[in-house]
Inverse folding.
């Protein structure tokens, strides 16, 4: 679904003002249903392999997705509306740095309020324009019962200490963000937020595709791109993925998730 330049400007302005914007019914549901089916065994294998680590709290799991079908899907990571907003926020020469999921199950709890990245220059006491974005979309409808993310609007441009003070004084509030299958959220990773409990018996997978400014490198996140698949990518995708490791194959034993420290 293409959007006008003026509407892309509006979405980017909302993200700059609030720390996030929502785009309704953007991704075809048929694509996401195929992702949901392919994700289920990946979640089971992850829990069996390293579920004991509980680094995101009880019953909540971060799982990197392999860059192959159905997840290596240009209709999503090169979607024109998504990239139009991302470009307005972090520049036309952005990099794609992350393809993963966050999934709470029954038994998950409220996370501590946190940011997903520290400020670039903490010694200044000032925040900068956006430098890293999380493009989030669920593989199921997100309801009040199955663990919506809660976000405090506008806190991406405050220090964490000041944002927490405003939360404690009631000047800002944590808002649960419900979403339907096909909706997309583009979020500045510095906004104060937390995961909430999934009180249902069905997993609630939320995909994150990370886009960063061209000079930002966070070694704990990357996308392993198979050499054969890289050769078939569009020139724009090759450019976005240029700093990720190119590997001969995605086959072989799964490694423990590197992205363990996530809260700042």
């Amino acid at each position: 679904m293409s959007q006008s330049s003026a509407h892309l400007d509006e979405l980017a302005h909302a993200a700059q003002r609030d720390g996030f914007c929502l785009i309704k019914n953007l991704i075809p549901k048929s694509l996401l249903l195929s992702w949901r089916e392919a994700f289920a065994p990946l979640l089971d294998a992850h829990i069996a392999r390293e579920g004991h680590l509980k680094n995101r709290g009880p019953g909540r799991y971060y799982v990197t997705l392999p860059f192959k079908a159905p997840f290596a899907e240009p209709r999503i990571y090169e979607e024109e509306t998504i990239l139009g907003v991302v470009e307005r926020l972090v520049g036309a020469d952005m990099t794609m740095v992350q393809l993963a999921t966050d999934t709470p199950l029954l038994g998950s709890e409220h996370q501590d309020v946190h940011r997903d990245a520290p400020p670039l220059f903490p010694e200044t006491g000032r925040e900068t324009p956006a430098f890293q974005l999380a493009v989030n979309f669920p593989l199921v409808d997100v309801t009040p019962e199955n663990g919506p993310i809660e976000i405090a609007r506008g806190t991406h441009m405050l220090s964490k200490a000041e944002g927490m003070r405003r939360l404690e004084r009631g000047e800002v509030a944590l808002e649960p963000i419900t979403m339907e299958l096909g909706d997309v959220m583009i979020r500045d990773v510095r906004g104060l937020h937390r995961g909430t409990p999934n009180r249902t018996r069905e997993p609630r997978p939320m995909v994150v595709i990370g886009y960063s400014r061209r000079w930002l490198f966070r070694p704990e996140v990357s996308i392993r791109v198979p050499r054969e698949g890289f050769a078939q990518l569009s020139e724009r995708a090759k450019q976005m993925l240029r700093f990720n490791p190119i590997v001969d194959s995605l086959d072989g034993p799964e490694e423990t998730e590197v992205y363990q420290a996530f809260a700042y």
